[in-house]
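Morning, I've got a small favour to ask if you have a moment. You're getting the sequence in one-letter code plus the fold written as tokens. Thanks so much in advance, here it is:

===
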Amino acid sequence: MRIQVLVKRLGRRGAGFEPSPFEILGPVGTVRELICACVETCVKKHGKRNVRTEPTPLDAEEISSMAQIGKIAFDIDYNGQVPSLEEAQRHALQCFDDGWFRVFLNDRELTGADMTITLKDNDVVSFIRLVMLSGRLW
């Protein structure tokens, strides 16, 4: 099944996100299954990407495309560890339960991990990461 995923940090200036297509496997009936399916897609993408160990110069096209996302990086894997799917899913579910991010399905908030959902092709799923601000007054 193919869905459109939006990832946004609350408080970031401008609408710096675009829907990106996600292929998820199997039926999805709860929010828990949706989060696990999205994490599985991300872990598989991470495992397939070409990892560099030394920085190489970026050309203007690479810099401009990364600037649109909001992060310019060299894609260097400093620790060389392959992420564990089960650990990543457990971590994502714990973060959802703790309120670190919110999930919306077609502009409707999904409030609980065991909430039943009906997911169709090309549905828009939004993940909004809540960033805790800290600091002091000057």
